[in-house]
Write a structure and sequence with these properties.
about 525 residues, alpha/beta, 6-stranded mixed beta sheet, 19 helices
């Protein structure tokens, strides 16, 4: 087995109709993969596919030049595997054999042309392995084709590849750089007919999940217009009125101003409006419940297939679980400690819930369990400012399987230090939560903080926790199998936060029982 800096590397090259991209993944010692390099070139191969469906010589030369520059990058790695895949333009080219032969002969890359079914499948595979959406419609609009799938219970049910993409739609319907209102209306009617031709799309009322560069740009523009305070675009959620607003806003601009819109790549300015019309029309036809972006797409789907081939599955059993396992590895989480704290937190949670304390419900269990796992994660960076680091890392780290609002909830609870610090972190997001929800988040945070004080020496000495509820007092009897003085000190120091959030006195009695 070769190594480079003690890490294994894989590479994937994706030859699309608009862009060609190289992504290199590094495998760390924990067995998780992360992007080590990501290089993009705007080749617009679709523009060189003539009426006879022949990729012209100029287009082939652009492709070869791009791949040659990518090879200079891949040659700096001792790669375990390099995959090179092509989609619509090469797939539709009559001179496909010549293209494959020249890529192999001049560059040394073995090029695999994906079928329509494979391209759609890999988009679906990327979505189910990086989001927790159990049922949805996916749409991946490239330069020359648009792949749509429908999946239920994380199993693909239907897929279709339409022979049009952002570049070809622009060529078919838009005469100049900016489309007119009439051109957009014609495009909408055409797309409506196309999507209605698939009965399994109509009135699905599930999330519409956008894949690819145009979907990413749509989200980035929305975030810029809203001065969105969180980092990351993966699993960002929009509604139909958000999509409509952006489309109408962009249509008011001239092309020069459009190219300067924050969040919009300059090289996508001329094709973004046809792409947005695709999303909006499909949203309407499917009666989508929301539009969710998946930053993971075709390349990642190909990669997941290779990654999971050895274990004979095609999907992670639990996307969120996989994300938290990755964090455990990245931040050296003490699993015995967090499991013990989680058990103590859950015990308190259940007794509070059964007695109507704190307005918590069964649905809040997931948050308590996940937040206990990463509570004070920022200690990995600096113990003195652990809370600040915890909040920043969790609020701004992409966590596959968690939507942005859930990620923020996790950050607020796992970073809990005091009421004033909680309010400080919450300030930019106050309008995201009603008052009752804010109080609940604070209470769960203070509960986990209290549970952590019960294992402050990381010895897991608490054997039993019994709670009784008096009129204005909560009494906790804590049975330990070792001397508990350090824990008692921390409990006395920290319980005020739980008392303030519950508005009740908390009394703790420690008992030592041998063995």
């Amino acid at each position: 087995m070769w190594t480079l800096g003690h890490k294994e590397h894989f590479a994937i090259i994706d030859i699309g109709s608009n862009t060609v991209r190289l992504v290199i993944y590094a495998k760390d010692q924990g067995g998780h993969f992360k992007e080590a390099d990501n290089v993009k070139a705007v080749a617009r191969l679709r523009n060189y596919l003539n009426e006879d469906h022949v990729l012209e010589e100029e287009g082939i030369k652009i492709l070869l030049k791009t791949l040659k520059s990518f090879k200079e990058v891949t040659d700096t790695y001792n790669l375990q595997q390099l995959l090179c895949v092509a989609t619509a333009t090469v797939r539709q080219a009559e001179n496909q054999e010549e293209i494959l032969h020249r890529v192999e002969g001049e560059i040394g890359f073995s090029l695999r042309v994906l079928s329509e079914q494979e391209e759609a499948y890999y988009g679906y595979l990327a979505v189910v392995n990086s989001t927790s959406v159990e049922e949805g419609v996916t749409v991946d609009i490239g330069g020359g084709s648009t792949e749509v799938t429908y999946y239920e219970n994380r199993q693909i049910k239907h897929s279709h590849s339409f022979p049009f993409g952002a570049l070809s739609l622009k060529s078919m319907f838009v005469k100049n750089d900016m489309p007119t209102e009439q051109e957009m209306d014609k495009l909408k009617r055409y797309l409506t007919d196309q999507f209605l031709s698939l009965p399994w799309i109509k009135n699905k009322k599930v999330p519409l999940i956008g894949i690819g560069g145009s979907a990413r740009n749509l989200v980035q523009v929305d975030q810029a217009l809203k001065s969105y305070p969180l980092s990351g675009v993966h699993q960002y959620k929009m509604q139909d009125n958000d999509i409509g607003f952006i489309k109408n806003y962009l249509l008011t601009l001239n092309f020069k101003k459009l190219q300067k819109v924050e969040g919009l790549s300059k090289d996508r300015a001329d094709i973004i409006l046809p792409a947005i019309q695709v999303f909006q029309t499909l949203y309407d036809v499917s009666q989508a419940s929301s539009f969710v972006l998946s930053r993971k797409g075709l390349r990642d789907g190909v990669f997941y297939e290779e990654l999971l081939r050895g274990v004979e599955i095609d999907r992670f059993p639990n996307v969120v679980e996989e994300s938290f396992n990755e964090m455990a590895n990245d931040f050296d989480i003490d699993l015995k400690h967090v499991q013990h704290v989680t058990d103590l937190s859950m015990e308190m949670f259940e007794q509070f819930r059964r007695n109507g304390i704190g307005h918590i419900t069964n649905d809040d269990k997931w948050l308590l369990k996940r937040a206990a796992f990463v509570f004070n994660l920022g200690d990995y960076i600096d113990s003195e400012s652990s809370s600040q680091h915890t909040f920043y890392m969790l609020a701004n780290r992409t966590i596959d399987g968690l939507l942005h609002q859930d990620r923020l909830k996790l950050a607020l609870v796992a970073s809990f230090k005091s009421k004033s610090i909680f309010k400080q972190y919450l300030e930019p997001y106050k309008h995201w939560f009603v008052k009752q929800e804010q109080k609940k988040l604070r209470m769960i945070g203070s509960l986990i903080k209290f549970a952590y004080s019960l294992d402050s020496t990381r010895r897991q000495i608490v054997r039993d926790l019994t709670i009784s509820f008096e009129k204005d007092e909560i009494v906790m009897d804590v049975t330990c199998d070792q001397e508990s003085m350090p824990e008692e000190y921390q409990v006395e120091k920290q319980k005020k936060h739980l008392e303030k959030s519950l508005k009740q006195k908390v009394t703790t009695n420690f008992y030592y029982v041998k063995g």
